[in-house]
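It is worth pausing here to work through a concrete case rather than discussing structure prediction in the abstract. The textbook approach is simple: state the sequence, then state the predicted structure, then interpret. We follow exactly that order.
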Amino acid sequence: MESILVKIQDTVAKYADVLSKISRVDVEVVDNRLYRVAGTGMFSELVNQDMSAEGYVYRQVLKTGRRQIIYSPGRELICQNCPHCNDCQEEIEISMPVRMGMEIIGIIGLVGSSREQKERILGDEQLYLEFLEQIADFISTKAREYREMDNKNRLLDTLDCTIGYIDQGIVIIGDDHVITTSNEAAKKQLELDMPEGTYVEIEATGDRMNYQNEYKMKVGDREFSIMGHLYDLPQKKGRYAKLLLFENSKAIQKKYYEMTSTVHTLDCSNIIGDSEGTQKMKREIMQVAQSSSTVLITGESGTGKEMVATAIWNASNRHSGRFVAINCAAIPEALLESELFGYVKGAFTGADPHGRIGKFELANKGVIFLDEIGDMPLYLQAKLLRVLQERKITRIGSNQVIPIDVRILAATNRDLREMIREKKFREDLYYRLNVIPLEIAPLRERMEDIPPLAEHFATHYAKLFQKYFWKITEPVLNCLRQYPWPGNVRELENVVEFMVNMMGTDGVLDEKTLPREVRERGGKSEEKNSSSDGEEDERTVHSETGRGTEEVLTLKELEQRAIRQAIARYGDTTQGKKEAARQLGIGLATLYRKIGE
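Step two, the predicted structure:
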C-alpha cells in the first residue's frame, strides 16, 4: 500500500525543489518506510528507490521523533553503523521529521556536500532549521488535506454504493439546486435519467400522508408528485446541502392499491351465456371499451354489473392502469367522501392520523367503478359532478388541486329517473353519467344462459370443495329454468353452491340437491306451463305433509323462512346479508339477532 507522501508525490517534489533553491543545497524527502519520494541535485536520479538498507540516520529520526543534525558525517557516533561511514561524501546533514498529528509520515533531509555549503548552513543554522520546519509543516498540511479528501471520497463512494441498494429514491442536492448524485431507484421511479449537474426544483405542497410529506419536484420541463422527506445535511452548503428520500406518488398508490383492492382479471370470456341478450352485451362491451366516455350500467341486483365494468376496463386502452371499485351503498355517508377523495393528516376528528389516498387518486390513468351510484348522498353528487366537469380533485383538509385522468363507470339497480322526479338524484349528474347506457337483462329474461351458468358454477364449487362432479340432470335444469330468479345470477350461484354441498358421491346434481324454495317455486311455474306429471306437481306445490292443502306456518316460522330465502338469494357474506336485510326491510343488527334465535 502506498504511503501518503507517495500519493502527493508531485506536491512533495515541488516543496523539495523550492527548499533546494532557497538553501542552495541538495534535498531529499523519504517516507516512513524509507522510500525516497523526492530529491534534488545528486538525489534526483535516485527518486522512487528503497533506501532502507542505508538510511540509518533517518531510521533513528523515525524511532525518536527528533530532528538530527550531523556536523561531521562519517566521524560521529551515530554514523558508525552506516554502510557509507568510511566513504561518506557529505559535509553536513539536517534530518527533519514530517508529522501529521502524532504520526511521523516522512523525513526531509537537507544535505551539504561541500565545505562552502556547510559554512553557509552553520552561518544561519537557526534560520535553516526554521525554514525546514516550515516546509515540513507545509507538506504535513497537504498530506492532511489529501487524507481528508480521500476519506471524504471514500465516504462518498460508500454512500453511493449504499444508496444504490436502497429501494427508495435518493437525490443529494447542492445549495445551488443542482443534483450531486442520485440512486437507481430514483431514476427508475421517475423514469428519468438525472445525471450530476441537473438542475432541480423541490417544493413542499403542505400535505402529509402515510408518515410522509408531499413535494412537487420539477426536473427540466417535467413535474412529479412525490412523497418523502427532505433533510438538511450537516454541511448545509456546497454540493452536499440536502438529501431527498422519496417514493413516487405512483409507487405509493400502487402499494396502497395492492393492499386495499381486489385483483380483477375478468374479461368478456368470463361472461357466460348463450342467449342473444348476453351475446349482444358482449358486443356492446367491446364497442364501448374503446371510448373514454362515462358508462352507466343498469340492471337488477345480482345481474353482474361489476363483471361488465371489469370487462370494459380489460378490453380498453386503460387496462394497464388500475380498476378501482367502490360501493356507494356499503360505506357510511360520513365516510364516503373521504374514501372517494382521500384526506391529509389532521383533516377531521377520527381520521387516520397519517392521511389516506382516495379512490379517484388511486384510479388515475385507469378506471373507477362507482357501484350503487343511486345511493350516493346529494351533496356528494354535486362534488362528483364537479369532478366530471373539471377532472380535478382536492383531498379533504388540503387546498391542493390534483389533476386526474380517470374513466368513470357507474352502476345502479335503482330507477334514477324516478329518483330525479323525487329530488333524490341530480338530473345534471344523471346526464353526465348516462353518456353510454348499458342495461343488463335479468336472468329470467335469458333462460338460455341458465344451463351453461349452472354448469360453470357446479364445476367451480366441486373443485373448491374437492368433490367429484359429473352432470346436472334434465329435471333439475327444467326446474332452474322455471324458477323466476329474483336474485339473478348471484342467486343462481348461491343455489348451485348449495347443491354441490348436498351432492352425493355419484357427482350428480339431481332434484334431491335442490333447495326447497327453488324446488317448490320452480315446480309451481312448471305446473302452470305443463299438465303432465300432475301427481308429481301436486307433491311439489303442496307441503311435504302429504295433505292436499298447504301447511299453515306460524309467524315465527314464516319469518325464519323469509330470512333463509333472502340469505340463499343474496349470499352468506357480509355484503349479502346487508342486501338481504335491506330487502327484508330490517337493519343488519336485527338480521343477525334473528339468525341467532
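Step three, interpretation. Residues 293 and 435 are 7 Å apart (CA to CA). The longest strand covers residues 222-232.
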